[in-house]
Amino acid sequence: MIWIAPSEKDTDNAALEKRLWDAAGLPHTLETRHAIGQVIRSSSSAAANYRSACRAKSKADFISKLGTVEEEADESGFWLDMLHDISQLGLVKFEPQCLRELDRLEDEADQLVAITVASKKTARGGND
Hints:
There is one protein chain. By secondary structure, the protein is an all-alpha fold. The protein is about 80% helix and about 0% strand. The protein has helices at about 5-15, 15-25, 30-55, 60-90, 95-125. The model is unreliable at about 1-5 (pLDDT under 50).
């Protein structure tokens, strides 16, 4: 795997709407618009909170802000998974390339959560 710094991943993740509509051909339906809107909000919040964590005033502040990054990245993964569920239920027809892009983005969200959890553990001194 190629290492990409969390800030680069977060910035890339915040551009999900364009990537999903353009690259994957995501259908424009009420269900997909709602889920994509949620992905955009949570992924851009993860990016903003990561930036804020990098400017933390203390170790405790840094760890707290990383906790928010973790939650928002996890929520992004939830909404991407919800899009998969919409497809599997047959509510909307997704093209194969769209499903592959969703898989890739879900993996990216999972990686962001893992990186954030590891960063919090390191900041705490390896405890818990």
